[in-house]
Write a structure and sequence with these properties.
single chain, mainly beta, five-stranded parallel β-sheet, about 0% helix, globular
């Protein structure tokens, strides 16, 4: 699927019934020069429902945040969801590349980047269960410090990059 536009907000029930989505391509350049900014991307940008029994294979998700960073910026990228406050069960992401980049422009505010195979950020009471990430290249790039010398935060991980919810039986 070339030039996939992530589902911005999903609150239903999606059962992939064991099927695969192959060659998903997400190329997103974000240019935002306003107040506090939150960017989410993946198969689904923000999940508040249930996604289960789905495999994503051979995906390339490349998202670049290119802005002046006038205010705090947060970016979340995951193979299934950028932000999850719902349930993800029995999902797999395999043979995929997931890459999040903040530009090296001057930045005045803190940057927070979360990039992972399944979910960029997992919210309170959200769940990921029985899910797998196989043979994936997951990377994040962010300038080390702000102009004021504050340290920016970047985390890349296989399953979830920032977690306040529950992860059970995942590989």
């Amino acid at each position: 699927v070339e030039n996939w536009s992530p589902i911005e907000f999903f609150a239903g029930n999606y059962d992939g019934q064991g099927h695969s989505i192959n060659n998903l391509r997400v190329y997103k350049a974000v240019e935002e020069k306003s107040d506090d900014y939150i960017f989410r991307s993946g198969f689904v940008a923000k999940n508040a429902g249930t996604i289960k029994n789905l495999t994503i294979k051979n995906a390339i998700m490349h998202c670049e945040v290119d802005e002046d960073y006038k205010m705090t910026s947060t970016a979340m990228l995951g193979g299934i969801a950028g932000w999850n406050e719902g349930i993800i069960d029995y999902c797999t992401v395999e043979n995929s590349t997931i890459y999040l980049k903040f530009s090296d422009q001057d930045n005045d505010r803190k940057l927070y980047g979360y990039c992972a195979g399944l979910v960029g950020r997992l919210a309170d009471k959200a769940k990921i269960r029985y899910s797998t990430v196989k043979n994936c290249d997951i990377d994040i790039h962010t300038p080390t410090k702000t102009n004021a010398g504050d340290t920016n935060y970047a985390n890349a991980s296989a399953i979830v990059a920032k977690c306040t919810g529950s992860v059970e039986y995942c590989l």
